Amino acid sequence: MEEQEIDLVDYIKVIMKRKWAIIGITIGAIIIGGILTFFSPRAYKVSAILEIGQIDIGRASASGRIITFIPETPTELQEKIQQGTYDKILQEKSGIENIPKIEVSVPKDTNLITMEIESYDSQEGKKILETLASIIIENHAKLFKEQKDFIQEEIKKEELKISILEKSKSLPELQYLYVEHLSRIDELKNNLATATETQLIKSPSENPISKSILINIIITGLLGIFIGFLLAFFQEFLEKNKERLK
């Protein structure tokens, strides 16, 4: 116990003896850390919001429930982006070799996905998100075209049925079918009119990420204290053992 107390007193004596050196090193580390943080490149958070489109394509025969087509759910798209599914084509279309990690979030109960990138080059970040959005929109547009073509064909079929009924002599007896087909055409046309395709509802925009100057000063200050203590004890060791070191 006494030996431990003696050692502790010795440590304190060394620290007090070299206190100005320790303080100087700590202040120097804080100044250097502050300068490096101040002059370091500013990072940006670039974000964009994509809305996945949808189109009503009919009704379930049994329940009458509206059947809605969407190319993929927001969660499915989120997983594909985060797994790097688009990275290769992104590199080809954007000309950017190193694609940074793209963070994707899905607001609850929406068809929206929010995409974010942290980058020191805000223009490059914008280009990546714009390119990614255009790839997704293009892929979805092909699927929407197939569904719209299908609806157009259904309209033509209904119009043909109406044309046949109009030529029929027993039209009064089949009036209910005539009205039913007209109603079906109106529904299909309404489906086309109310369809929303996938679109970028918030273009990529950047926000500067605030530099954590205070945190960096604290870290460099603690590092300075550690280095100061280390050098103080090393210098003390050299002084006490300089005869043996000769």
Oligomer: single chain
CATH fold name of the largest domain, please? Bacterial polysaccharide co-polymerase-like
Tally of separate domains: 2
Distance between the termini: 35 Å
Question: Can you describe this structure?
Answer:
The protein is of the alpha+beta class and 246 residues long. It has two domains: 2-40 and 211-245, no CATH class; 44-208, Bacterial polysaccharide co-polymerase-like (2-Layer Sandwich). 62% of the residues lie in helices and 15% in strands. It contains eight helices and six strands; from the N terminus they run ααβββααββααβαα. It has helices spanning 2-17, 19-39, 74-82, 87-94, 122-167, 175-194, 213-240, 242-245, and strands at residues 44-51, 55-59, 66-69, 103-105, 112-119, 199-208. The strands form two sheets. It has a four-stranded antiparallel β-sheet, covered by helices on one side. Strands 2-3 form a two-stranded antiparallel ribbon. A hairpin with a 6-residue loop joins β4 and β5. The longest helix has 46 residues, at 122-167. It is rod-shaped. The two termini are 35 Å apart. Mean pLDDT is 84; it is low at 1-6.
